[in-house]
Amino acid sequence: MGVTIKQIAELAGVSRGTVDRAIHGRGDVNPETKEKIERVMRETGYRPNAVAKALKAAQNPVTLDVLVPSSPFYADLLRGVRAAEEFYAHYGVRLRVAERFELNGASQAAMLRKLSEEHTDGIIMAALDVPAVREAVSCAAEKVPVITCNSDLTGVKRLCFVGQDHFAAGRASGTLMGKMLPQGGEVAVVPGSRDMLAHMQRAAGFRQALQEQGEYELLLDVRETGESDKRAYEVVKELLDSRKNLAGICMTGGGQAGAGAALADSGRAGEIRLACYDTLPGTVEHIKNGTADYTIAQDPFLQGCLPVKLMYEYLALGKEPGRERIFTRIDIRVKDNVEDQEYDMFTGEDR
Amino acid sequence: MGVTIKQIAELAGVSRGTVDRAIHGRGDVNPETKEKIERVMRETGYRPNAVAKALKAAQNPVTLDVLVPSSPFYADLLRGVRAAEEFYAHYGVRLRVAERFELNGASQAAMLRKLSEEHTDGIIMAALDVPAVREAVSCAAEKVPVITCNSDLTGVKRLCFVGQDHFAAGRASGTLMGKMLPQGGEVAVVPGSRDMLAHMQRAAGFRQALQEQGEYELLLDVRETGESDKRAYEVVKELLDSRKNLAGICMTGGGQAGAGAALADSGRAGEIRLACYDTLPGTVEHIKNGTADYTIAQDPFLQGCLPVKLMYEYLALGKEPGRERIFTRIDIRVKDNVEDQEYDMFTGEDR
DNA sequence: TTGAAAGCGGTACCAT
DNA sequence: ATGGTACCGCTTTCAA
């Protein structure tokens, strides 16, 4: 199997307790003894047994707070959180998932302050990157580790971020759009919210990649859709009515189902390319029926379960995440794979 | 944390040994006692602790044989195998990865026969679906569980298959090609090998999806490329020379780097769409420089590590895979994400 | 400074 | 048919 602490102890002529102390630097160990133990470890290639470690670690349970808005947008991410919760139940990890956590700066900041009164061992959150939240998180991060998921916070000392590189995702979308419109043409970039960094980064990446491929007339001063399908319907309808030469539309997020509906109602679906992001049910529907051409997802499930894993390893095993940002994949979906489920390594179920 | 066997035993007024026997049906247990234990388990919602189970199970190590050709095509799959090996080292799983396992029926059958002389607890293999291999595997499968990965065997009682749904992947490629050639045109399907079921399925899916989108003239009687880049270069050059109206090429596998080179040399790269499969280095290169438009990968890493997980769970925990086929994802890559690495849940490294 | 021993949850063997 | 106990590898406490 592998070398155990017991074997190291025997080879070094000491007890298991001493080896443990030497490894972790807790308690006093005679320098010579330590030297010898380390030599034996090196020679035998000792690797700690993570299973045994986990069994032991479960004796000191940790409580993690999960602050993720419970909107449909985060449904898949929350499924990832639940899967990780199930998996880590026997590892002494307890999750407290906030109900009614809202996508609103003041509410989030208040929530964080309330949290600091109870005991928590770590915070996992999808936060709004606004001053009030940044400040509250900075304060919390002084005491406990914070991992951001899906959306990051700028200038805050969080342990790690798990989410998409939106600029790169935007580029991938722009590359596809360019290949679908080889002859150039008018392409509109429809903003969700100009306050959302993610949306702006997607737009920037899209433009950059598209313009590398040819002459396109980009329409950038389109009205924001917000999160509203109704609003998006109007915005896109207006666009379709006013631009008879429109060849492509890139949504940056928010109201994509409404945009699809407007395109379908105009009778120009299939003729005008429609690019989306993520896999909200309405978006998926438009991909399936051909109104939208492709969508770029970001593995929200992983954005939910990976932070739990990272937090467990940090708290229970003392292992830092390797990187400060972990990007989830740029997941291009068309009609034929938009509904595909993937095998999940945690639960063994579909995701 | 959770209910333990010890607690169940106390509540039922018996010993832990009895509870264990009642759960697993080994040894004799008084029906009344069993009834009572089961009731307590139901009421408390007992869930066995997988960590403790694993620690114990490591006492009875298992040896798995991995028969995967060591060609570049399987490099990523083998990296997955290695990652799983590392992860499961402490679970009492030992892997024996065959060196010089070849993509050749007679050789594979011989290998399997040799294997049956040594002791093995399970076989993981990427096999050729030809009679000699089928027969040898059928024979081996009588004694030990067999999991196929990447390529399946027809009519063999293997435990499970982990790989891509090639027809669906072909469809996705056809859908993309159609969107990139909205005005129709001549599209060639270049076969790798007509003996490879995967290649034929890709071709069939591609045709189906493409034809749903418009009028295309499909060129289907193209010569096979085999696995040879040189051959593929010739085949594609011939195609380019003879078909001045060619608008798209779909490779089904094998020699894709050669095909890209031929297209690049012809000076018509960018003008003619080129669709590929998988992410061999040569293919990736052509995607990056724009000669090829997209490639469809199949998560080879998962095809390597998942079989090890399934085999461990089957042998050590007595858990059957949920499905007979587990499809890995249809992973569309363009220039901007073709080199992306993903976080791997097993090793915590990139893959 | 070091050793001995108990315990995490589950399994397996030996006694009874 | 059932109970008691030892063990997996690691950590932690208590005693020396």
From TrEMBL, chains A, B:
PROSITE patterns: HTH_LACI_2. Keywords: DNA-binding, Transcription, Transcription regulation. Gene3D superfamilies: 3.40.50.2300, lambda repressor-like DNA-binding domains (1.10.260.40). InterPro entries: HTH_LacI, Lambda_DNA-bd_dom_sf, Peripla_BP_I, SBP_2_dom. Residues 3-57 form the HTH lacI-type domain. It comes from the Bacteria. CDD domains: HTH_LacI, PBP1_sugar_binding. GO terms for molecular function: DNA-binding transcription factor activity; transcription cis-regulatory region binding. This is Substrate-binding domain-containing protein. It comes from Christensenella massiliensis. The lineage of its organism: Bacteria, Bacillati, Bacillota, Clostridia, Christensenellales.
